[in-house]
Design brief:
CATH class of the largest domain: Alpha Beta
CATH topology of the largest domain: Quinone Oxidoreductase, Chain A, domain 1
Number of domains: 2
Structural class: alpha/beta
Strand content: 25-35%
Order of helices and strands: EEEHEEEEEHHEHEHEHEHEHEHHEHE
Largest sheet: 7 strands, mixed
Low-confidence stretches: none
CATH architecture of the largest domain: Alpha-Beta Complex
Distance between the termini: 11 Å
Radius of gyration: 19 Å
Shape: globular
């Protein structure tokens, strides 16, 4: 079978499509014929050796993927022919993948393989951030940094699914259009976003900030919070890790909360399936519909990752097998 492999840690340009043996599933594994693979930020970091997990070379990329079950163990809840979405720390970028049933999720019939491959990492992260870490309540307001990216658009849609108002922070008009199409109620430019937030909330501020960017946005993100607000630290795509002056937390009784979805979810059997079940009604209602802006042939995942690295990618990109 074909597999997309990292054989040296030189980034996306060094990826190779190689012929490797098909996996032999363990007695508890689901065997999946892969149809589509999501392009994710962890894939980019893995290709450079910069991710917190460092698999031995060579290894396959692929965090998110979707396909059709070939075989499944009794009691797994799956059967041959089922359409599924899947998530792994790495290893999904191949024509056939074997993995545990906890990492496999039923794909509603209305959801394409492309959309299915765009969901697990971003939407489970967003659901964990908003429901588990932020305790989001209906009627609250969520400010979303990096709103035109994969996690950003997922956060907009999951927040809407929970009945929240969303304000998207973007750097260009094109990204603003994508955020609106994903469901954002309002859009503000990143330059001067604090003033825009204060105006839109009549000076009160927002209840939750979803921050995948980090960098120099942190101080104004804290200032944008309403009393008892929660700032969620999800990542640092801006390239630098900010420091927080903790006296700011006292002023309005605000919190800064880390969001490490994988470290929490992947060691708790059944947790990801519960998350997915919370998202299914949102998929069926249409509020969760990943904006797959571009698809690529399997051999061009390196190109897709390069565009992600250069912050030219909008929404979620997917490679097709």
């Amino acid at each position: 079978m074909r597999a997309l492999q990292v054989t040296r840690l030189d980034g996306p340009a060094a990826l190779e499509v190689n012929d490797v043996p098909e996996p032999t599933p363990g007695e508890d594994d689901v065997l999946v014929d892969v149809r589509a693979v999501g392009v994710s930020f962890p894939d980019l970091l893995l290709s450079r050796g910069e991710y917190q997990m460092k698999p031995d070379l060579p290894f396959q990329l692929g965090v998110d993927f979707a396909g059709v079950v070939r075989t499944a163990p009794a009691g797994s809840g799956f059967a041959a022919g089922d359409r599924v979405a899947c998530v792994l720390p790495w290893g999904g970028a191949a024509e056939v993948v074997a993995l545990g049933a906890d990492s496999v999720f039923p794909l509603p019939g209305t959801v394409s393989f492309e959309a299915g491959a765009a969901m697990p990492l971003n939407y489970l992260t967003a659901q964990f951030a908003l429901a588990t870490r932020a305790g989001l309540r209906e009627g609250e307001t969520v400010l979303v940094h990096g709103a035109a990216g994969g996690v950003g658009t997922a956060t907009i849609q999951v927040a809407k699914g929970y009945g929240a108002r969303t304000i998207a922070v973007v750097s260009t008009e094109e990204k603003g259009d994508l955020a609106r199409a994903a469901g954002a109620d309002e859009v503000v430019p990143v330059d001067g976003f604090l003033a825009g937030v204060k105006e839109l909330t009549d000076g009160r501020g927002v209840d939750v900030v979803m921050d995948v960017v980090g960098g120099d946005l942190m101080t104004d993100s804290l200032r944008s919070l309403a009393p008892l607000g929660r700032l969620l630290v999800v990542g640092f795509t801006g390239g630098t890790i900010p420091e927080v002056r903790v006296n700011r937390l006292l002023l309005n009784n605000i919190d800064v909360r880390g969001v490490g979805w994988g470290a929490h979810a992947m060691v708790r059997p059944g947790f990801m399936r519960e998350q997915w079940e919370a998202l299914v009604p949102m998929m069926e209602s249409g509020v969760v519909a990943p904006p797959v802006v571009r698809t690529y042939p399997f051999e061009e995942m390196g190109t897709a990752l390069t565009e992600l690295a250069e912050r030219r990618a909008l929404g979620k990109s997917v490679v097709l097998l």
